[in-house]
Amino acid sequence: MEGTNPVNKKLAAALSGGAVLVLALSGCTSSSKGNDKLDAWAKQVCDAVQPQAKKIGAASAAIQKQTSDNSTPDAVRKTDAQAFQDMSDAYKAIGDAVQKAGAPDVDNGAKKQTDAVKELDDIAASYAALKKQVDGLDVKDQAKFADGLKDIATSLDKLSSSGNDALKTLEAGDVGKSMAKQSSCKSASTAPSPAAS
Question: What separation, in Å, do the N-terminal and C-terminal C-alpha atoms of the chain show?
């Protein structure tokens, strides 16, 4: 089993960076003068994000756990593939929630919404591609498997550092203030984020 662990640790470290993406949706903490329309929008989005943030946290934790066990390549492949599928589904669901909530009641709200949905859908597609990559790994050849994991860790690194500018833009100003007031966004941001060991 030697050889899979260091690489899978790298994967877990890269992944814990990726899980941070969704927590950008959790706003900062400050209060704003009430804007009922915007508060209702924020509540709808935050309520939808919360279970997805948990799903992403659980997927990260599953990969993390595989790295601490001396797992077989087969078990690693299975866990990682499921985790990437869950993450893809979660980001897609968050994109759908932002789409469904409509444009927030702020300047350029429609553009901000459209850009954020596109970004979330792109992230979902990237995780789906990673799942495909994991499914294709050769578990019988230890060296090939380790190399394949290395490539996936590199892709994951890129994904987690590619940023989430549209989400940040969506949440700037009053939108962020409204989101910060929502208890579901607060609990999404305190979802256990797996620390890279």
Answer: 19
